[in-house]
Write a structure and sequence with these properties.
Helix 2 (32-35) links the parallel strand 1 (20-23) and strand 2. Mean pLDDT is 77; it is low at 148-155, 159-181 and 192-201. This protein has helices at 2-12, 32-35, 50-64, 78-88, 95-102, 104-113, 127-137, 164-167, and strands spanning 20-23, 40-43, 121-124, 141-145, 156-158, 182-186. Helix 3 (50-64) crosses helix 4 (78-88), helix 4 (78-88) runs antiparallel to helix 5 and helix 5 (95-102) crosses helix 6 (104-113). The chain folds into two domains: 2-101, Rossmann fold (3-Layer(aba) Sandwich); 115-186, ATP-grasp fold, A domain (Dna Ligase, domain 1). The longest helix is centred in the first third of the chain and has 15 residues, at 50-64. 37% of the residues lie in helices and 12% in strands. The protein is elongated and about 60 Å long. 16% of the residues are buried. The protein is an alpha+beta fold. The strands form two sheets. A four-stranded antiparallel β-sheet has the order 3-6-4-5, sandwiched between helices. A two-stranded parallel ribbon has the order 1-2.
């Protein structure tokens, strides 16, 4: 992915950083402009498998010395990376925190408990459960992937039949089956809040 390549290239050129990559790409497939900034490369078959990541990190450590940080650009990597950090004693985001980020329903519940405004939500397994939630919070209702927006090709805006002309979207029949465990959120008006976090340097 171009965005991932840009992320890695930028990190590799930071002062004082020696960066190696664990990837499904062979060394020959790494773009030359990126490869010249890398201290190491380790190919795996499945970059989301924590066991393969751990083996790769251990192998790179034998070549380059202790690994101080383990970073991944994709959201789907956060739990596997956290598992490897805990297994190898590498500082950074732990497994519980990674799950809080990946599980959107859990994340919203924790933010709400901490006083951060969040839309009312419920994890649902089918359209019937979504409509039951809508009976409580009202329409329209936004449905998206329960763990990551990256897992869902699009969000669905569910509206009652009477709202067809207003929203110009097709109402979802109550018999339709949704992808397993999607997150239904009310369209509550809320202030826009954004968060960015990075681990401090060692």
């Amino acid at each position: 992915m171009p965005a991932t390549v840009r992320f890695v290239a930028t990190a590799a050129q930071l002062p004082g950083v020696r960066l190696a990559v664990v990837t499904t790409a062979s060394a020959e497939q790494v773009p030359p402009d990126l490869a010249r900034h890398l201290a190491g490369h380790w190919r795996v078959d499945d970059a989301l498998d924590p066991r393969q990541i751990a083996d790769a990190v251990a192998g790179l450590a034998r070549q380059l010395g202790p690994v101080r940080r383990l970073v991944g650009a994709l959201e789907q990597l956060q739990v596997p990376l956290a598992q490897v950090r805990e297994a190898l004693g590498i500082p950074g985001t732990d497994v519980a925190t990674a799950h809080n980020v990946r599980d959107k329903a859990r994340m919203k519940s924790m933010l709400s408990a901490a006083g951060v405004p969040c839309a009312r939500h419920r994890l649902v397994a089918d359209a019937g459960e979504a409509f039951a939630f809508a009976a409580t919070v009202g329409f329209p209702l936004v449905v998206s992937g329960g763990h990551s927006l990256a897992q869902a090709p699009a969000q669905l805006l569910i509206v009652p039949l009477s709202a067809w002309n207003r929203y110009s979207v097709r109402p979802l029949p109550s018999t339709r089956t949704l992808p397993s465990f999607v997150l239904a959120s009310a369209t509550d008006p809320l202030p826009l809040v954004g968060f960015e976090a990075v681990d401090p340097p060692p």
